[in-house]
Amino acid sequence: xxxxxxxxxxxxxxxxxxxxxxxxxxxxNDALMGAKRLYLAxxxxxxxxxxxxxxxxxxxxxxEATKFSQDLLDADKTYEATMRLGIRxxxxxxxxxxxxxxxxxxxxxxxxxxxxxxxGEIVQVPxxxxxxxxxxxPLYEYARAGQTVERQGRAVTIRLLEILDCAxxxxxxxxxxxxxxxxxxxAEDIGEALGCGAHLVALRRTGVGDLTLDDAVTLDALSLMDxxxxxxxxxxxDALLSTFAPVHLSQDAAKRFQQGQRLRLAExxxxxxxxxxxxxxxxxxxxxxxxxxxxxxxxLAPERLVMTGASA
Length: 312
Hints:
Layout: E1 16-22, H1 28-39, E2 44-46, E3 55-62, H2 69-73, E4 77-85, E5 87-89, E6 98-101, H3 108-116, E7 120-124, E8 133-134, E9 137-138, H4 139-144, E10 154-167, E11 170-177, H5 183-194, E12 198-208, E13 211-212, H6 219-224, H7 227-232, E14 245-249, H8 251-258, E15 263-264, E16 278-283, E17 289-296, E18 299-305
Parallel strand pairs: 3-12, 14-16
Antiparallel strand pairs: 1-3, 2-3, 4-11, 4-12, 5-6, 7-10, 8-9, 10-11, 12-13, 15-18, 16-17, 17-18
């Protein structure tokens, strides 16, 4: 006899940002779906994937916050990683097959000199085991079929690169890098500069833009919370916009802004912003977040609007 199916719980409309500490072995999409189920959320999205073999910060957006996920896709990322010198693999990490083993004749001085060469703007050739597409097909599909296709080097910026621990052949380092940087490719390139090769054995993301792991929670911890505690774990929508200068509008100006109108800066009693700057816009009366705008040509031009009432 078939058991009666349990009624589906209604989905909730909620706005906010969850700083999730993703575990190793879980895809970013599975982590998103797990959080979405726990919150019974109608709408949710992530701000860029984190490889299954990597752990760490995965900001998740709910409701109106999804409108600003692109801003974190473009943000700098910070990682703590461990590379193993002397071994090259097919994937650049511990999942791949060993391609070559070389002796590690490296001291800390040579390591520091090699590391220094990779600070600032560098050119990286994207790895074959990546989701970048060629003729509509991800590169990893070619790689799995034993094919190698030509890839163009891309400029990326390494803003910070420092050694945290050196226990050769393993080297732990911290890197803050621009969008599009492959940390395993960075490890491989450092290994080549040292003449011994290298691959990545551990990767943990600790920062995305101004967001850090300090306030992050795990899925296991979320599952043990009641609904009130889970909701309290959400950051407000404007947590994604902390690098933008704030602008506060009067009730009349706020109404016109919400209608998508461009407002003359000379008429507004708000914080001056440099030409071309992106700003976060609030209604002065109650502090409600209205959206983001750009200042240009003496006007405040709306870019993305949120529904009134989104948490701020």
